[in-house]
Amino acid sequence: MEIEQCGEVLQQARRQGRYDEAEPLLDKAIERACRLLGEENWSTLDVMSTLARLYTAQSRYVEAEELYLKTLEAQRQMLGEEHLHTLRSMNGLAQLYTQQARYEKAEPLFTKALEIGRSVLGAAHPQILTSMHSLAILYKEQGRYDEAEPLLIEATKGRLLKLGDTHPHTSESLNNMIEFYEAWGKPEQAKEWRAKLPQTGAEVE
User: What's residue 93's pLDDT?
Assistant: First the structure.
């Protein structure tokens, strides 16, 4: 497997729930990248970050955190905090902490990634929309609805405009908008966002 295909392998594993098949492929990709490029090459670090996302999806939180921290430290030193890959790892580590309800660790990472990303990449960049969406979900999980709402709306509208209404990330945002307003006790707003779902699609479970 080519190093550039690692992200695609992870996405396919998520869709099919076949993580056990993806892991050895990513392990081999890391081994190959380390041998050909060195452990601190940006491509090697990107594969390591992908493997950390796989561990997170498998709820292997200790392994995921260890790998994220190692990768993020190297990316900060080699690429700087403003690089897209560094921001992606920062967001991934924050998502890991969110899944563990370690909100005090997740929030500063999300906030920093979003602040840097807005400045360097612009608010419409897909990675920044992901950071925006993730921070909004963190606020929602804590019942901080007033803080979550503007971020979730901006992220969802940005994904609709940038990715279209059938993209998986857009579907995720639309369904989260519906769930958000239902959790907040605002059924009318939830109904308005439900109407924006593609007519041929159903809500994502």
Answer: 96
